[in-house]
Amino acid sequence: MKTLEVDLGNRSYPIHIGTDLIDQPELFQACAKATSIFIVSNTTVAPLYAQRLTKTLQTLGKPVRTIVLPDGESYKDWKNLQLIFDDLLQFGADRQTMLVALGGGVIGDMTGFAAASFMRGIRFIQVPTTLLAQVDSSVGGKTGINHPLGKNMIGAFHQPVAVIADLNTLKTLPARELSAGLAEVIKHGAIADAAFLDWIEVNTQTLLACDTQAMAHAVLRSCEIKSAVVSADEREGGIRATLNFGHTFGHAIEAGMGYGEWLHGEAVGCGMVMGADLSCRMNYITPSEVARLTKIIESMNLPIKPPQLGGQRYMELMQVDKKTEGGQIRYVVLEKIGKAIIQSAPEVLVLEALTAAGAEIGTETGAGAP
What we know:
Layout: E1 2-6, E2 13-18, E3 37-42, H1 46-58, E4 64-69, H2 78-90, E5 98-103, H3 105-117, E6 123-128, H4 131-137, E7 142-147, E8 150-157, E9 162-166, H5 175-192, H6 194-202, H7 204-208, H8 212-232, H9 247-257, H10 264-281, H11 287-299, H12 311-319, E10 330-336, E11 339-344, H13 347-357
Parallel strand pairs: 2-9, 3-4, 3-5, 5-6, 6-9
Antiparallel strand pairs: 1-2, 7-8, 10-11
Helix pairs in contact: 4-5, 4-8, 5-6, 5-8, 5-10, 9-10, 9-12, 10-11, 10-13
């Protein structure tokens, strides 16, 4: 097992990365002072791991209950968030209750938002079971739900007390979900560590085979990069926004297609292709570097051609972005491979990048789905 820390003063917390961590009660000692523990999971993950996690938590001598939500991005909304509150209130949760998020990014975000909101804030632990959640969404305290007009636009910053990433849970991931998580791994190399991107490029097949040793390195290095950024800029006032490379375009795909049609990582992967192209048009990186990054993304079985929503529709959707200031969209672009910056961009260049990727061709909302 490897452990690193997100340094946030008295709100610092560990990230544990290893195998069979779900079965280790000592990693859940933050629950020892809880009056009760509520596991929040979904209909896919709960049958696989909830019983094992419950057994582990029961050794702490606390009552444990599981809340099971529907599975999928389309359920990341007020209605299903309310199901968590309903259970907490019905079964006597209080300010010393601990929530444990067992699942992917949707479960982690919703559990964290519930923890931030219930009785104005209770503690929670992240137990991410997807690659995307282990390398990205479980770390950093971003919590929230989607709105029909924009992804993750309603939420709060609320840090977990621990992240426990059990690599063995990745063995049950469908291939499509694994590829979606690899998009965020690629992103970390592209924005912060050119040598890590080199390693990803060399180890494509090993990663796609979900080799435990390769996954351990991918998760650890991704978490090192993200935890360093979060420690420096917890509330995204500056450098943390660079973690959103590919996300402005990607979130537009998710909202435009309807949440759940494209997986988040698929949309981010495709968004990085357009983000790299825009970086080139702004004279930061070269066409060969764009082609290389595109090839790496495609090699992970990720889509590189966006859906045909129409250029103007993309601009409208990207306007609903947390980085937008004073009505001006700010994009994460690559100053070079391994370093990202945040810039406004001329709309003509953005439209050219969209057109080059095929996003402006036609207006059918169903075209281009992976």
